[in-house]
Write a structure and sequence with these properties.
Radius of gyration: 18 Å
Shape: flat
Order of helices and strands: EEHHEE
Largest sheet: 2 strands, antiparallel
Helix content: 25-40%
Strand content: 15-25%
Number of strands: 4
Length: 86
Amino acid sequence: MTIPKPGGGERELGVPTVLDRFLQQALSQVLSPLFEPTFSDRSFGFRPGRSAHQAVQAARQAIEDGQTWVVDVDLDRSSTGFSTMP
């Protein structure tokens, strides 16, 4: 099954099987404790116990503290993924 892409064309729509989900969870349980401590405290994306609301609050606090830049990085295969907002 395919679905349309916003920029044109189509992409495959895959529904993970039970085995896929099982393997993903098993890998996550092994790898998360290894890598989680190395991530920045200012990183909020797809991390346990963190949310978009917390990211917004951290950005607001940074502005209140006088910081003037927010950098958002979104890794994507189709673009550089870097954007900055002064």
